[in-house]
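Blinded run. Sample ID left blank on purpose so nobody reads anything into the name before looking at the predicted structure. Input follows.
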Amino acid sequence: MVRHLAVAAAIAGAALSARGSAQAPAPRANLTGTVVAVNQQSDTVTLIDLKTMTAYRHVAVVGGPHEAAVSPDGRLVLVTNYNKQGVGRQKTLSLLALPSGDTVKTIDLGEYRAPHDVRWVDGSRVVVTAEGSQALLLVNVTSGAIERVFTTGLAVSHMLALSADRTRLYCSNMRDGSVSAFDFQTGAKIKDVKTGKECEGVGVTPDGRWVWAGNRAEDSISIIDTRSLDVVKRIASPGFPYRVQFTPDGTRALVPHAQASSLVVADVATQTLMKSIPLGLTKVARPETAGVFPHPDNRHAFVTVRNDNSVLVLDLVSGQTLARVEVQASPDGVAYSPVQR
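Blinded prediction complete.
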């Protein structure tokens, strides 16, 4: 308990320090490309021109969208239609062209319900969670065919992570408080690793060596050794750790904390928390941090703020919020494409 309090105090101190720096005039980000923000309650996807920091299109999708992933060439984005309020679990994926936002097709998953998280495998296939069916699916976006089913057998298999070499697939199981590891090539489950209460966010380091999982109901982050598939470290991290992403160079873990109004930045090598960056420029007193996506430059990150209906551009080094772009209702998932409008 003393250790947890010390960590919490350190994070709070870092947040105050970062908040002080965030009040200084923010320099221009000088970024290009397109940011995709998924608006849960508007049933839309917002496209943002980074060069001008403007939202240039709101694209209607099937309903209840939550997450998005951009294709390797940056020309397509796949959106999961998860759970529409008043209607229930959905069963489709929306494929959009970038930068136009035009709908290419809607993919029907048939019996599989509540697709939530998604990652591209290559230029024609994605892997997606089907939370309502306790499974993950390998889907060919060209044909619409489901090529493989990874059965979790556990409730609320929510987020996923795919190793860069395409050998391992991981997903978080919120009800069970665990991470399931699969052999991606065969579809066989290797192990269910207990992490902590309501494990939600999950990410694998670019080198495939570690999996980080956020246990939102107990304010902790579990680190899994991918060789032994055991939890080797648990870090106290107050404020509802919600998602896990890594900078492309693999040096930092980015963990949005929904109830702390901040983005926690951790050092991967030392497996320690570095700083907690508060969200600036918002129009609400207690912004609710949701999704995060790192820019390829390893310095900037895009964060959605659910109760502020916005996407923020953060400088991971200075801790400043460089820009705020208005989107639509309750943004969650966020992705980046280098393709410029």
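Unblinding after everyone has recorded impressions. The domain at 1-33+259-341 is CATH 2.130.10.10 (Methylamine Dehydrogenase; Chain H).
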